[in-house]
Amino acid sequence: MTDTLLERLEASRLTFEVIDYAYDDGRTTDIGLHAASSLGQSQDSVAKTLVAEIDKKTPICLVLPVHRKLDMERVAQLGAGRKARLINAEKLTKMTGFLPGGTSPLGLFDHMPVIIDKALQPLATLHVNGGRRGRVVKIAAADLQAFTGATFADITLAEPD
């Protein structure tokens, strides 16, 4: 987590905890599932942060449980567009300053809208990326929403039965 981000969180007077865990540098997929396992937390309470573009021009930050998949049609609708697609790793770093596996909604809300999946809304606490690989912030869903100005919406595909 950058010092500036930490200072902003501390100034907000919200309750949060920064937690570091052993990140597997060789991992390129299922980073969020790895985080949940490393933290000893339920996959329902650990969030991944993805960045998509609506109609190849409007960036949007998406926060969802690590085991869920995005409903890209719904994301496009929420962004008042026709098509949504995830941005690639190179563009992510250039656009946000974060590496894949280190993207934090706590550091993006000044740059783009943030949407948090409704499945996370009722949680007393959840774990979101803290701005670098191997670091999360434990924070209440309502506090994450308040800090980022996010909207809660249904952005994931239905879970298989």
From TrEMBL:
It is an enzyme of class 4 (lyase). Keywords: Lyase, Protein biosynthesis. It comes from Frateuria aurantia (strain ATCC 33424 / DSM 6220 / KCTC 2777 / LMG 1558 / NBRC 3245 / NCIMB 13370) (Acetobacter aurantius). This is Cys-tRNA(Pro)/Cys-tRNA(Cys) deacylase. Belongs to the prolyl-tRNA editing family. YbaK/EbsC subfamily. Its EC number is 4.2.-.-. It comes from the Bacteria. Residues 35-147 form the YbaK/aminoacyl-tRNA synthetase-associated domain. GO terms for molecular function: aminoacyl-tRNA deacylase activity; lyase activity. Coiled coil: none annotated. It holds the Pfam family tRNA_edit. GO terms for biological process: translation.
